[in-house]
Design brief:
This protein is mainly α. It has helices at 3-19, 22-25, 29-45, 51-70, 82-94, 96-100, 107-143, 163-187, 207-213, 223-228, 231-257, 285-308, 323-346, 351-357, 365-375, 380-396, 406-411, 423-427, 429-435, 444-459, and strands at 148-153, 156-162, 190-191, 218-219, 265-266, 273-274, 282-283, 348-349. The N and C termini lie far apart (70 Å).
């Protein structure tokens, strides 16, 4: 073989590899076969296929599916994508009827349908994983409605909370994520099948029939938009990115809480590792990985936005780049949700450490200011500055404000030298937490009510 021929063959192989999508879009084999069966059934209903042809096609497609799932199917670059690979094997199995399957459709609407089916199915499965995670946060919250933990702003001790309330903050985040997937599912539950290349088909088809068979609400309304639309893929990437952001936030807290400085929690040995050189260390590797994997799903979202931003109507080969990022993000969120669920379930809460930390930073200082406003009819700004004096007094005595005696409080500022000794009760950390009983607040009473709402939602 001449050098020229070798180069020509090499270039052809490189182009085949560059052009083909079969090695990643084979992920869609199940959706492709499902869509083709529905399409064949509709063609039979419309008289385009005979009953015998349709039955042969359906049985052949089910055989292809079995071959793929058993590992007998050989994926080859020669067939470019999963759609051509399945159709080619079908024709090998059943002959002439296999060549009739593609009547009244294009690979454009075929891939749009397959991909949308995949996204819809994954939206449902991810939604269920989110629901399970919400349930786990609620279970942990229910055990700790009286456990004190420092509430922070700017990573500085601010006010006393109960740990159950803190857990419910994440339950709310993941509940919103659940609702985002639910909303996206409803908005995107329309079938592109039958749009053909971009302008519909002259064949006598029934798009409502295929939409119904595939579990869609109805067919999409505009053929050109249908084959070029990837909003549904962008939506699932955005939804996944938002969920991963929430996963990253709780992971950051788990890393912090498990540190020697905090020791609020201890993670199960399954989800932490020892150092390769320092045997005394226990590293929070799993939360760190969860936090790190957020970056890759963000990248997948931005990547597809970038692919789509300049595409003219209708279909363009650029959209072949729409799938790998979605597949990757879906796998990332699925395993991340499962692992985080187990981390939260198995973590050990160090109640004493949490409650002792509440004695640092004068967490009940705001309660003194609120008391002066409510009981002494004092302007808040005046109360604020008096409270600063009391805090300064506590610092000088190396005490937390909740530990001051009534004499020490009175001596800190002349305006409050005769203050009632009931203020001691207001500065108590647990009373401070329970005083915040407004709707959505951190009191044990409010936390229990919020748990009931979540339990009702989970039952539904």
């Amino acid at each position: 073989m001449s050098t020229e021929q070798i180069l020509k063959n090499t270039n052809a192989q490189i182009l085949d590899e560059f052009n083909a999508s079969i090695m990643f879009d084979k992920e869609l084999y199940s959706q492709d076969i499902k869509g083709s069966i529905a399409h064949s059934q509709m063609l039979c209903e419309q008289g385009v296929l005979t009953n015998e042809e349709q039955e042969s096609i359906e049985n052949g497609l089910l055989q292809v599916k079995e071959e793929i799932e058993s590992g007998k199917f050989e994926f080859s670059l020669a067939y470019e994508d999963i759609h051509m690979a399945v159709e080619n094997r079908l024709t090998e199995i059943i002959g002439e009827p296999g060549k009739r399957l593609h009547t009244a459709r294009s690979r454009n609407d075929q891939v749009a349908t397959d991909f949308r089916l995949y996204v819809q199915e994954k939206s449902l499965s991810i939604k269920e994983l989110l629901k399970e995670l919400v349930g786990t946060f609620v279970q942990v919250a229910d055990k700790h409605t009286t456990t004190l933990i420092p509430g922070m702003t700017h990573l500085q001790h601010a006010q006393p909370l109960n740990f159950g309330y803190h857990m419910l903050a994440y339950a709310n985040m993941f509940k919103r994520d659940f609702e985002r997937f639910e909303s996206s599912y409803e908005r995107n539950n329309y079938s592109p099948l039958g749009s053909a290349a971009l302008a519909g088909t002259p064949h006598n088809i029934n798009r409502d029939s295929t939409a119904s068979k595939l579990g869609f609400k109805a067919p999409t309304a505009h053929a050109m938009d249908s084959v070029s639309d990837r909003d549904f893929a962008l939506e699932i990437l955005f939804n996944i990115s938002t969920s991963m952001m929430h996963i990253s936030r709780i992971s950051e807290e788990l890393v912090t809480w498990s540190s020697y400085e905090f020791q609020f929690i201890r993670m199960s040995d399954e989800y932490a590792t020892t150092s390769s050189i320092m045997p005394q260390k226990k590293n929070p590797d799993v939360p760190e990985l969860l936090r790190g994997k957020t970056g890759r799903v963000y990248g997948n979202l931005i990547s597809l936005f970038t692919v789509m931003k300049g595409l003219p109507l209708a279909y363009n080969k650029d959209t072949q780049e729409d799938k790998e990022g979605v597949f990757d993000s879906v796998k990332t969120i699925e395993i991340s949700l499962k692992i985080l669920n187990e981390v939260i379930k198995t973590m050990i809460v160090n109640v004493d450490k949490m409650e002792n930390a509440c004695k640092i930073g004068h967490l009940s200082a705001t309660d003194l200011a609120d008391y002066l406003v409510q009981k002494q009819n004092m302007p808040f700004r005046t109360a604020y500055y008096i409270t600063k004096d009391v805090v300064a007094c506590a610092n000088s005595l190396n005490k937390d404000i909740s530990e001051l005696t009534i004499e020490e409080i009175r001596s800190s500022n002349d305006v409050i030298r005769d203050i009632d000794d009931e203020i001691i009760m207001y500065l108590d950390l647990r009373n401070s937490m329970n005083a915040r009983k407004s709707f959505g607040g951190t009191s044990t009473l409010q936390t229990v009510e919020q748990i009931k709402v979540f339990e009702e939602w989970l039952e539904k």
